[in-house]
Amino acid sequence: MLKLQTDIEGIKVYFGEVYKVFKANGFTFCSNYEYDHGKFDMKLCQEGGETIYIRIPFDVLEGELDRPGAYIQFGKPYVIKHVVNIGLDWDENSLLTTTGFNQFQNPVDKDGKILDKSRWVEAGEQQVHRVLRSMNDLQILT
Q1: Mean pLDDT per segment of 10 residues, for the chain of length 142 residues?
Q2: How many CB atoms lie within 10 A of CB 59?
Q3: pTM for this predicted structure
Q4: Which residues pair with 43 in a beta bridge?
Q5: How far apart are the C-alpha atoms of 11 and 16, rounded to whole Å?
Q6: Fewer C-beta neighbours within 10 Å, C or N terminus of the chain?
């Protein structure tokens, strides 16, 4: 995991306002959230069974997550690499893996070693800056 140095950490906003901004900038709202915290997620690169993501976590300060009125605060963004098995998996899901990839399998390594760290730190920081510019343009940030 590569932690990023950006200005988003500590910013407080309403979930409904930033959800649209993140979606417009290519991020998804991670579906494995709790009602008191979550994260926005974006693929930076995918090659074979390796995917590099940027993740921007946040905590819910007021309300319930997935509601537009939830008031959230961003944490420290990071880049992470997942490695999955792209070979055949001969278990109860083997029909799904006959194509060579089972989208429901767990990663072989949830925090794989990232080569060329400076490249991915820069790419991640650029994405965060792009989202921050969009929030400023829409006057979500005061």
Answers
A1: 95 94 95 85 88 94 90 96 64 49 51 73 95 92 70
A2: 15
A3: 0.78
A4: 53
A5: 15
A6: C
